[in-house]
Prior knowledge:
Blueprint: H1 5-15, H2 20-28, H3 47-65, H4 76-95, H5 98-101, H6 106-113
Helix pairs in contact: 1-4, 2-3, 3-4
Amino acid sequence: MVKDNETVIKEFNELVNMTSPELEDWLKQGHSENSGWDKGDGSGETVGHERQVYADSAAGQILNKNPDKDPNQYEEEDLQHMRKVVSYCKRHLAQEEKAKENTDSKSYKSLKNWGHDPLKT
C-alpha cells in the first residue's frame, strides 16, 4: 500500500534532521564515501555514495526550496524522492541499531548520506 502524500511529508520532515548545509558539508567529507559497496574503479568511492550524492543533493534542494516545510509547496518530483528517503531511513533504522552506537559504521554513514543523523534527537 502506498503512503499518502501527507504521511510522506510528515515522515520526511521527521527523518531528515540535517540541514541542507550540514548535508552538503557531510557529502564533501571523505568518510561519507565509505557507506556502500566499492565501485571497483580504484576511486575509493562506493556505489552507495555515488547514488547518494545525487539523492542527497535532491534532498538538499527540497530543503532549500521549501525551508518552511509548507506541504503545499512540494512538487510531485519532490514527493517521489521523499518517499525513497523515508523508505530507506525507516528500513535501515529498524535493522541497524549500531548506527546510533558507532559513528564509524557503514549504517551511520549511509543514513547521514540520506540526510538523517542518528545522533541527533
